[in-house]
Amino acid sequence: MQLVLEKRAERSNTIAMVSPLIAIGLTIVTMVILFAILGKNPLLALHAYFIAPLTDGYSLQEIAVKATPLVMIAIGLSLCYLANAWNIGAEGQFLVGAVAGSWIAVKTQGTDAGAWVLPAMFVLAAAGGALYALIPAICKVKFGASEILTSLMLVYVADLFLDYLVRGPWRDPHGFNFPTTAEFDPVATVPLLIEGGRLHLGSIIALVVVAAAAILLGRTIKGFEIRVVGAAPRAARFGGFNADQLIILTFAVSGALAGLAGIIEVAGPVGHLQPGISPGYGFTAIIVAFLGRLNPLGILIAGLFLALTFIGGEQAQIAMKIPLDVTKVFQGILLFYVLACDSLILYRFKLVFPNRQVARGTA
Amino acid sequence: MRKTLLALAAGLLLAGSVSAASAADKLKVGFIYLGPVGDLGWTYQHELARQALVKELGDKIETTFLENVPEGPDAERSIEQLVRAGNKLIFTTSFGYMDPTLKVAKKYPNVHFEHATGYKRNPNMSTYSAKWYQGRYIQGLIAAKMSKSGVLGYIGSFPIPEVVSGINATILAAQTINPNIKVKIIWANTWFDPGKEADAAKALIDQGADVIMQHTDSPAAMQIASERGKLAFGQDSEMIKFGPKTQLTSILDTWGPYYIARVKAELDGTWKSEDTWGGLDSHMFAMAPYTNMPDDVKKMAEDAQAAITAGKLHPFKCPVVGQDGKPVECKGGDHLDDGQILGMNFYVKGIDDKIPGK
Questions:
Q1: Where do transmembrane segments lie in this chain (chain A) (predicted)?
Q2: Among A72, A296, B170, B201, which residue has the least CB neighbours within 10 Å?
Q3: Inside any domain, residue B233
Q4: From the list A58, A167, A323, which residue is nearest B357 (CB)?
Q5: Which residues of A touch B74 (CB under 8 A)?
C-alpha cells in the first residue's frame, strides 16, 4: 500500500482563490497551539503579531519600508517565473545594483553635486542589476547552462565584490577601518515622505512598479507572450513567440528591479554602503512572489503581509518576550501550509495497492 | 460554547492589560543584541550582564531585549521599537549600531542611549568599551612562555583599531620574553563564523603556530587547537569546556557592574552622556583562571595582571617602535595616550605582515 499524489482532472478556481486564506487560517491555528505550549496568551500574541502593528502610523510606515524591496524584487521575479525563466539570483542583482548606484554617491561625496545625483544613481543601479542578470540569461540561451545554478552562484560573487569595495577602495577614511563607506550626502539620499518617519520615496516607486506590471501582464501583447511562453511553450512556438528573447528580457527587467531596490535600500534606510545591506531580500522575495501567486496585486499583498510578520514579530518580542525564533517558525509554517494547500488544489491523495491496483481516492 | 470562548478571551485580554499597568511605573531598560542569546560569546556576555542587572535592581526596573538584530537597515527600526515601547534607557551592544543609535537618539532627546564600542556621541548618547588590550598583553606573556615553536597564531576579525591594538599588545608582551617571537595573522572578516574560524585555526597550526589566539567569537578555534594538541586562548566567554587541556585563559566581558551603575544613575536622575573606557581596574572585563600552564608562568601572569590593575604596568609604554623601526610619538608621557590606542592603525616592529587595505 502506498500513498501517492494524483493530478486532479480539473482545478477549481474558487479553491485556488481561497487557498492562501486556508493556509493563513491553518497557520494561525498552529500558532495558537504553539503559543499555548510556550505558556503565552495566544490571543495577546496574535494581537501583537497582526493587529497591533496595524493600529499606529509608525508601524504602518515600517511595514511599508520593509515591504518595499521585497515587492519590487518579487515583481521582477514573477515575470521571470511566468516565462519559465528561473532567476534565483535576485540577491546578487540587488547587491550589484546597490554597488553601481553607490559609485556615484561615493565619487560625488562632499562635492556639492546637484539634484541629478539621485536619479543618476537609480539609472545606474537598474542598469547594473540588469547587466548582472543578463549573465545567467545569456549563458542559458547561448550555452544551455542552467540559469538556476548560474544566477544563484553569482550571488556570492556580488557579495564578495561589495565586501572588497567597502574594505578597500571605498572605505570611509574616517571610519576607523570599519568596512563601510562614509554616509551619503543629502543629494544622494532617498527623500523621506513624512517628517520624522522612515517612509521614503521608494515605497511610491514600488507601487508604480506594481501598477506597471499589472498593465504589462493584463493589457499588453508582451505580457500575453510572457504568460503563453511559460504556460504552453509549444503553443508559443507555433504562435511565433521567441522564448529565448523572453528569457533575456525577463531576466533583464527582473535584474533592473532588484538593482533599483538595492540602491533605494542603500540610499534610503541604510544611508551608506556596507556588507549586510540585505538580510536576504532577494531570497525572501522568491517566497513573496509565490505567496502572491505571481500576480502583481497578490505580490503587493504578500509583501505587506510578510513585512507585517517581521514588524509584528519584533513587537511580540518586546511586548510578550516571545523569542525571535518563534517568528521564524511562524514564517516557515506559513510557507509550508501555502505550498501544501497549493499542491492539494492540483493534486489529490490516493492510496495505491500494488497488487490489486485498487484506488481508493478521496475527492 | 461561543459565549464561554468570548468570556475567556475578554478575561485573557484583561489579565494582560492589568499586568502591563503594574509595570508602568518601573524604569524600562532596553537592549539590542547582535546575535542570539545562546550560551556563550559576545551577546551572551551582555545577556549575563542584563541578568545581573535584573538581580540587583529588578524591583525598580523592567528589561526587554531584541536579539539577532542585524547591523543593517533593520537596526534603526528595532531601536525605535524599544523607544516606542517606553524604554527610557537603551543599550545597543555592537559597533554597527552606531549610526542607527545616533539617528534614533537625535529623534528622541528624552530617551538615553548607551552604545558599545563606538565613537559617536550625543547629549543623550553615551559610549562604553573596555581596554581589552590589557588582557591581550597578559596573553602575549603567557603565549611566549608556552610556545615551543616561537610562532603564535592570531585570528583577527576586522582590522579596526581595537583588534590591531590587541595584536600589538600581544606582540609587545611576547617580545619581552622572546625577542624573536613570530606571529601569523589570518583575518576571518567576521565576528562569528565557526566554519571560517576553524579553517583559520587549521591554517595557522599548519604554518607552525602552536598557541592560537582569536578576536572572533566562537569556540571553533579552541576545539581545533584541542584536537591538534595545541594551546589556545578563549574570547569573550569562558571556553574551558571546549578545551579542558587547551585553554590558557580567556578575556571575559563583564558588563554587569557598568550596566548596574548606569541604570542606578538613570534612576537617580544623574545620568549624563559620557565616554567610558574601562580596564581591569574598573572590572569592565576579567581574566578567566590561568590553566594548563606551569606555576611559574601562572605567577607571572597573575603578577602582570596585578601590575596592570594597579596602573604600574602599561602595555604601550614608550618607546613603542613601529614597523619602520622608528619609535611612535609618545603622547601620554611614558606611554601612548588613549587617543593613539583608540585609533591605532599601525603594526609594531616584529610583526611581519601588513594591515589589510592599508
A1: 21-39, 63-82, 116-135, 147-166, 199-217, 246-268, 280-308, 329-349
A2: A296
A3: yes
A4: A167
A5: 66, 279
